[in-house]
Design a protein that fits this description.
single chain, mainly beta, 3-stranded antiparallel β-sheet
């Protein structure tokens, strides 16, 4: 498991979002970056009061080839994330 260093977290906090998965009316999960050649995704939660819980997840695929990543044991599929 790859962990982000404090310096890397602070750098991603200032990056623009690539995509957003809406959780509710106030915000949701933001995809911030794709480091390491696109094998991983950096994401965080934003519900209107700033970015929280920034982390890195490995991109996995279903049996049919549908890409997703996991945050807090929930699957987020890339075809459900809206590009920004």
């Amino acid at each position: 498991m790859i962990r982000l260093k404090k310096v890397e977290k602070e750098a991603y906090m200032n990056e623009k979002a690539i995509g957003v998965f809406c959780e509710n009316n106030f915000g949701g999960l933001e995809v911030v970056g794709l480091p390491y050649g696109g094998d991983y995704v950096v994401s965080c939660f934003n519900f209107g009061n700033g970015r929280k819980n920034i982390g890195i997840s490995k991109i996995e695929y279903t049996m049919t080839g549908r890409p997703y990543f996991r945050r807090y044991n929930r699957r987020y599929y890339f075809d459900e994330i809206m590009r920004v």
